[in-house]
């Protein structure tokens, strides 16, 4: 029976009794962890070998982009460009060199701007095609600090947008920068998933991706269109998002990079549900392009209602036609 | 503070180290401090409100314990006060909006009530049910807890604060006497439970969540295929089990590290062979609470069959509404109330001898009933639930909401879970693994593997536990 005094000591006598073994175990643990950090991450091994199953999110897109430093044409924007541009087909048509599709799901002007700047850190394109979707010119849109934003923006960039990291996020980011297994856990999980046969993303598609399945029953199209165009303000070329794109255009040109805008195709159901807004948005996009003298690429006519996976994304055969059209327009622009 | 967050990973060892470093007489005080730090990390004003509720219910208990007359009136008044707080935060807007909508539709009125829009305090439903249990049991003859600190720890105990299990003070408070002794076996069990809970939550529950969301969104948009509907509901059944039982494991494991034993909340629920059996295995602390404080006071099953069926119906509608202030939750409860009532009725009329075929048939029926009822539970409204149930009945529209990979993962996980439970129930010794005794180098290597796996398994954003919303 323990005495009252020893009972009050809690677990410490157990630890003290095994102090040497605990010390050895901790030392071994630290050696293994430091070895993983140095050998897998700091050596660049992980960055050069990481594969993904799903390139729809920014960190995955950046990971596969690092293996395409020679891309001459860069496509950026949201999932509308990710699902409608096959860089290989565009390159064949335009004879403008290899391309890379840097679009990702749920991007917005702020994220597109940040992603483009990250890509330009290791790519040297001659042309950047920016997808300007109707939401870009929404007067009521504003920057939001989201998980996606934290993937493509540094803490300083977030703070500059008025969304500094809170204490928890700061600790999280700090730990992630010291211990990469934690900091890059999402990519690691993607890499592990990609080891399953048939799951690895085919990187020869150069960033193009359309999710499997379809959601194009009429009820779903109408409901999705309703949701997508709810709570929008007025479309204007001076919308906060448009200002960000304008500044991106100026910066790209200052670096000697040509810029073009792409108007993405949308399912006719979108025009049925939000016709007036979309008309206003198109006028605003054209005005935005005119203000900066940016050429507009509009290949929407290549897609009909049956070509859509859902309201905003093309199925692959239509994406091929759309890409061919975009390639021809780029070639025409080059000759102009 | 989420159990699967970095904050908790820091909080728990710090709280644990200080707890055991303090002399035994100070450990309860530290547990209180830890519990309020845990709650206040979400909201300081609501932590203050919880403190007020604890003080009030402590005094209610003392008054009720000493009262010799008008005890029933006192009990009713005290419970009404607790329910008023719960009602204000959780149900006021719901009932006002429902009343206005009904009046507008039926009487042609034009009511637009001002809604409060209050944020629901985390764990308020669990706090309230523990307070009611405490007061009713004192009314029934138990002795109130005279130590405010002990009552306070019982009420605010951080491992069970947010989503239970709903504790009973008769079991919990006596355990506060034995905090002077560190129980190594209990601590080991605690670490195992935490690891198991995190695995369930992060590797399984969170993995299933996006597929469930895709299926529910499709139903909410008005179209989902038949196979997708069944897979979605099966995925949700697995998600809610892994999420909630994972949470419970972490809660019980955290409590065990501090020397507390918290009762189980799940007992292989998806092996239930009847509707009643399901509720003996699912969220046990809630179902026993409902039995003891609603079903029995209504008369339980010792009355005529129509009254028993009524009692079951009322009890389960309340259970449904406890989960959320929305009519689809009430419909979920009503469906179970009717199902259990009919089962009770049939059992009183037809006596079948136990057999394996009956068990298999009962299991199949129970699981089908459960999956269909989940459509009411998970879908955001009746329209979506209707689309989902019609699709489950073969009237699905379209396909491709869930990929083949997702469907195979869901079916494979369900099969693996059922096989594991069956093996555990039948004691398949061939599957038992005996852990060898490891030397310090092997322990260090194993610890580094745990760190790597834990780092990988950490959530990217705020993957909250599903039951936190209740």
Question: What's the structural blueprint in terms of helices and strands?
Answer:
The complex is a heterodimer of chains A (336) and B (470).
Chain A: H1 4-7, H2 12-17, H3 19-42, H4 45-49, H5 58-65, E1 73-76, H6 79-82, H7 87-94, E2 99-101, H8 109-119, E3 127-131, H9 147-152, H10 155-160, H11 167-178, H12 180-183, H13 185-194, H14 218-228, H15 240-254, E4 258-263, H16 268-292, E5 296-298, H17 316-335
Parallel strand pairs in A: 1-2, 1-3, 3-4, 4-5
Chain B: H1 6-21, H2 24-40, H3 44-66, H4 71-106, H5 124-139, H6 148-156, H7 169-175, H8 184-220, H9 226-257, H10 275-281, H11 284-298, H12 305-323, H13 327-349, H14 356-378, H15 382-395, H16 404-426, H17 440-457
Helix pairs in contact in B: 1-2, 2-6, 3-4, 3-5, 3-6, 4-5, 8-9, 9-14, 9-15, 9-16, 11-12, 12-13, 13-14, 14-15
Question: Into which percentage range does the β-strand content of chain B fall?
Answer: under 5%
User: Low-confidence runs of chain B (pLDDT<50, min 5 residues)?
Assistant: none
Could you tell me the mean pLDDT of chain B?
89
Question: What does the radius of gyration of chain B come to?
Answer: 24 Å
Helix content of chain B: over 70%
User: Biggest β-sheet of chain A: count, sense, barrel?
Assistant: 5 strands, parallel
Characterise this structure.
The complex is a heterodimer of chains A (336) and B (470). With 336 residues, chain A is α/β, with parallel strands linked by helices. Chain A has helices spanning 4-7, 12-17, 19-42, 45-49, 58-65, 79-82, 87-94, 109-119, 147-152, 155-160, 167-178, 180-183, 185-194, 218-228, 240-254, 268-292, 316-335, and strands at 73-76, 99-101, 127-131, 258-263, 296-298. Helix content of chain A is 53%, strand content 6%. Chain A has a five-stranded parallel sheet, with helices on both faces. In chain A, strand 4 (258-263), helix 16 and strand 5 form a beta-alpha-beta unit. In chain A, helix 7 (87-94) packs parallel to helix 17 (316-335), helix 8 runs parallel beside helix 15 (240-254) and helix 14 (218-228) packs parallel to helix 16. Chain B contains 17 helices and no strands. The two termini of chain B are 16 Å apart.
């Amino acid at each position: 029976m323990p005495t009252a005094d020893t009972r009050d000591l809690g677990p410490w006598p157990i630890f003290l009794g095994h102090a040497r073994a605990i010390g050895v175990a901790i030392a071994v643990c630290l050696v293994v962890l430091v070895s993983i950090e140095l050998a897998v991450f700091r050596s660049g091994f992980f960055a050069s070998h990481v594969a993904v199953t799903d390139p729809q999110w920014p960190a995955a897109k950046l990971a596969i982009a690092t293996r395409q430093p020679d891309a001459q044409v860069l496509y950026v924007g949201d999932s509308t460009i990710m699902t409608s541009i096959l860089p290989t087909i565009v390159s064949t048509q335009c004879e403008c060199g290899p391309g890379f599709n840097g679009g990702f799901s749920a991007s917005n002007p702020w994220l597109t701007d940040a992603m483009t700047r990250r890509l330009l850190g290791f790519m040297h394109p001659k042309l950047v095609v920016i997808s300007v979707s109707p939401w870009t010119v929404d007067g009521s849109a504003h920057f939001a600090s989201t998980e996606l934003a934290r993937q493509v923006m540094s803490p300083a960039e977030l703070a500059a947008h008025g969304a500094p990291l809170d204490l928890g996020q700061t600790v999280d980011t700090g730990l992630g920068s010291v211990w990469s297994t934690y900091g890059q856990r999402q990519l690691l999980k993607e890499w592990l998933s990609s080891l399953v046969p048939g799951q690895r993303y085919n990187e020869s598609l150069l960033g193009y991706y359309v999710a499997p399945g379809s959601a194009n029953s009429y009820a779903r199209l109408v409901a999705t269109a309703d949701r997508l165009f709810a709570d929008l303000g007025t479309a204007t070329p001076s919308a906060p998002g448009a200002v960000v794109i304008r500044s991106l255009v100026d910066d790209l040109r200052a670096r000697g990079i040509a810029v073009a805008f792409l108007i993405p195709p949308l399912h006719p159901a979108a025009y049925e549900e939000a016709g007036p807004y979309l008309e206003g948005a198109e006028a605003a996009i054209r005005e935005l392009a005119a203000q900066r003298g940016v050429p507009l690429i509009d290949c929407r006519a290549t897609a009909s209602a049956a070509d859509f996976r859902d309201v905003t994304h093309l199925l692959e055969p239509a994406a091929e036609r759309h890409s061919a059209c975009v390639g021809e327009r780029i070639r025409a622009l080059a000759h102009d | 503070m989420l159990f699967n967050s970095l904050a908790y990973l820091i909080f728990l060892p710090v709280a644990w180290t200080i707890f055991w470093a303090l002399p035994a007489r100070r450990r309860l005080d530290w547990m209180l401090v830890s519990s309020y730090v845990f709650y206040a990390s979400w909201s300081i004003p609501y932590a203050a409100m919880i403190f007020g509720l604890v003080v009030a219910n402590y005094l209610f208990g003392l008054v009720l314990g000493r009262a010799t007359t008008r005890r029933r009136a006192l009990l009713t008044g005290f419970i009404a006060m607790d329910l008023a707080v719960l009602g204000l935060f959780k149900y006021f807007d719901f009932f006002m909006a429902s009343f206005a909508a009904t009046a507008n539709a039926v009487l042609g009125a034009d009511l637009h009530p001002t809604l409060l829009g209050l944020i629901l305090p985390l764990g308020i439903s669990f706090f309230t049910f523990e307070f009611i249990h405490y007061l009713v049991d004192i009314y029934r003859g138990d002795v109130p807890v005279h130590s405010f600190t002990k009552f306070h720890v019982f009420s605010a105990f951080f491992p069970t604060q947010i989503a239970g299990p709903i504790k009973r003070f008769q079991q919990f408070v006596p355990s506060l006497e034995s905090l002077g002794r560190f129980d190594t076996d209990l601590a080991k069990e605690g670490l195992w439970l935490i690891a198991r809970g995190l695995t369930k939550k992060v590797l399984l529950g969170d993995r299933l969540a996006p597929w469930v969301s895709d299926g529910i969104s499709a139903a909410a948009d008005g179209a989902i295929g038949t196979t997708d509907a069944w897979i979605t509901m099966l995925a949700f059944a697995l998600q809610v089990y892994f999420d909630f039982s994972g949470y419970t494991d972490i809660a019980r494991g955290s409590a065990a590290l501090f020397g507390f034993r918290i009762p189980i909340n799940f007992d292989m629920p998806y092996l239930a062979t009847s509707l009643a059996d399901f509720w003996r295995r699912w969220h046990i602390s809630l179902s026993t609470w409902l039995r003891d404080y609603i079903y029995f006071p209504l008369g339980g099953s010792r009355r005529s069959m129509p009254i028993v069926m009524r009692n079951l119906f009322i009890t389960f509608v309340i259970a449904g509404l406890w989960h959320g202030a929305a009519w689809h939750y009430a419909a979920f409860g009503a469906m179970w109330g009717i199902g259990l009532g009919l089962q009770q009725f049939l059992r009183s009329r037809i006596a079948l001898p136990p057999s394996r075929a009956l068990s298999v048939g009962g299991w199949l029926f129970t699981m089908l009933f459960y999956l269909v009822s989940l459509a009411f539970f998970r879908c955001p409204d009746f329209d979506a639930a209707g689309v989902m149930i019609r699709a489950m009945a073969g009237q699905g529209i379209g396909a491709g909401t869930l990929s083949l990979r997702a469907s195979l993962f869901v079916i494979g996980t369900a099969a693996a879970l059922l096989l594991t439970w069956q093996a555990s129930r039948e004691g398949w010794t061939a599957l038992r693994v005996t852990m060898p005794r490891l030397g310090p180098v092997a322990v260090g290597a194993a610890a580094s593997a745990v760190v790597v796996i834990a780092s990988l398994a950490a959530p990217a954003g705020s993957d909250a536990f599903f039951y936190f919303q209740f």
